[in-house]
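Input sequence (111 aa), recorded before submission:
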Amino acid sequence: MEARATARQIRGSARKVRQIADLIRGKSVQNALDILQFLPKAAARPIEKTVRSAAANAMNVEDDVVDIEDLRIKTIYVDGGPMMKRIYYGPRGMASRMKKRTSHITVVVAD
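Predicted structure, token format:
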């Protein structure tokens, strides 16, 4: 049985969030939550929240009763989201474009 959770438009570039996603891919949910709790990266918080949501989705399925110790992270992937375009001011009265990147996180857990 599988369960999935998606977090959309999370502030942070997909490249930085993928580094954290690579650390927990294939691990058990409890082990992944322990790793994410003590990781000093800002992107670890939204990933931790998404993993908890996927685990809760798996436990709330009406057919089966699943314990959190039995769940593993089957798939986790991070896609780029929309960019917020802002202006920052440079020297000699010039302006440049700044892209504030977002990302979409998808976690699939299975027993």
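Checked by second reader. The chain has three helices and five strands.
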